[in-house]
Amino acid sequence: MKITLLCIGKTDDKYLIEGIEKYLKRLKFYITFNLVVIPDIKNSKNLTKEQQKEKEAQLLLKHINSLDTVVLLDEFGKEYRSLEFASYLEKNMIQSTQHLIFVIGGPYGFDDQIYQRANQKISLSKMTFSHQMIRLFFVEQTYRAFSILKGEPYHHE
Question: Which Gene3D superfamilies match (predicted)?
Fold first, then answer.
């Protein structure tokens, strides 16, 4: 199985970049994990929220094929504890999921095209975080999940 985190817009904060890179390096020992960052929409100030979401959807869909399992990181998605998320990843591996794509939308969320294409929605919290912070939280939780599956001492419960 391969995992991709697909997101809109670059991260400028050095501390977030360093944290993301730390966990990306750790993840390579467990799984093929790719972070794909789609550039922000240009001239978005001249667009309505709906137009911006539609343009972002077109860019996101270019990175998704028909066989991919697409999971939106969405505030209204299913919440998992870390052990449950590890189990979720394990089930996908057992079911021979080839490519699991997790998607972080732009500042206004997802266009209906993306909701229709998605196989599932997951929420990392009921709280709202910046899209850049979500990247760090997601790669850390993915690393934590694999350390749980391998019985390593990173996670304490």
Answer: 3.40.1280.10
